[in-house]
Write a structure and sequence with these properties.
The complex is a heterodimer. Chain A has 10 helices and no strands. Chain A is mainly α. By secondary structure, chain B is mainly alpha-helical. Chain B has a domain at 32-85. The chains are: A mainly alpha, B mainly alpha. At the A-B interface, helix 2, helix 3, helix 6, helix 7 and helix 10 of A face helix 1 and helix 2 of B.
């Protein structure tokens, strides 16, 4: 898959082949959109960001060196796009505020495992923005600590300790064992 | 004994990690024209970039044509006001003129060639 990605990237860069890039989007759009949806908690806003992310990716495709995975490189752009948009957009802060309020009010009421997306939203709201991104990259996208380090520009040691802290916060605020049995 | 404890800790960690993975897991999102929309936007962007320079040159030319004509007219009037002996400067005054012209022509050809190679 990775080799295929590299071949498609090479085609897209050398011949400005938009069809090859379209194939890359088709392959990775789900992961990028899921990542951004979890990060923002807002489906349409996340999809807008995903579009911007792929447009940025196209414009700087020649900077992809092929050292890491292509999806890791895309997630790095997605995260940067998210951070940039957050600085610009008031909408994000409104969404985050409302999610934060829900978490504060219903912090320890993780008792409805059927409503997974909603519960995950509450769970993510107790984390800082950086912890949230790192936890999502690790547990939802399956990136290695090294890949997360490359995507966020943090050393691997920092990533490990942030994941540890994130897990600690989740453990403190939610009874995740209930999820296993419920 | 110690290795047993370490192994148990690792196993607990793994179990928790798997649990978190299951909580974080999400259904794949259907493309539903998402990638096509982006590809269309990219193609439009490419076309806009390709057309930007010729369009800018055309618009600039249209805007500049009137003042340029005025400038040429004014220049020719100015030349008619200058005494004739000043205009008929002997070629010997600028001995490097053929070399300069050749150099200029070579520069233009070189630039065009580089552009074409690009």
């Amino acid at each position: 898959m990775d080799g295929d990605d590299r071949y498609l990237v090479a085609r897209a860069v050398s011949a400005q082949d938009t069809a090859a890039f379209g194939e890359l989007i088709r392959r990775h759009q789900s992961q990028i959109r899921n990542f951004l949806r979890k990060l923002t908690g807002d489906t349409s806003f996340a999809d807008d960001l995903a579009q911007d992310c792929f447009l940025h990716a196209w414009n700087k495709l020649q900077t992809f060196t092929g050292r890491g995975s292509f999806v890791g490189w895309l997630l790095k752009i997605a995260y940067t796009t998210f951070l940039q948009s957050k600085r610009k957009s008031k909408r994000y802060s409104e969404v985050l505020d409302s999610a934060g309020h829900v978490a504060v009010i219903e912090g320890r009421s993780y008792t409805n495992p059927k409503d997974e997306v909603h519960d995950l939203g509450k769970m993510l709201a107790v984390l800082t923005e950086e912890e949230r991104a790192i936890m999502v990259m690790s547990y939802a996208c399956g990136l290695s600590h090294r890949e997360i380090g490359e995507a966020t520009g943090q050393p691997v040691g920092t990533i490990k300790s942030m994941i540890h802290r994130g897990k600690e916060k989740i453990r403190t605020n939610f009874d995740i064992e209930d999820h296993k049995h419920g | 004994m110690t290795s047993k404890i370490i192994n148990m800790v690792d196993r607990t960690k793994d179990a928790e990690d798997r649990l978190l993975e299951s909580i974080f897991a999400a259904e794949p999102i259907a493309d539903d024209g998402f990638s096509n929309r982006i590809v269309r936007r990219i193609r439009r962007q490419i076309w806009i970039r390709r057309l930007a320079l010729p369009t800018a040159m055309l618009v600039g030319g249209v805007i500049a044509i009137k003042p340029a004509l005025h400038l040429v007219t004014a220049g020719s009037r100015l030349l008619s006001a200058v005494p004739q002996e000043l205009l008929t400067t002997p070629a010997g005054w600028i001995p490097q003129l053929p070399v300069m012209l050749l150099g200029g022509a070579l520069l233009v050809i070189g630039m065009l060639g580089t552009r074409m190679i690009d």
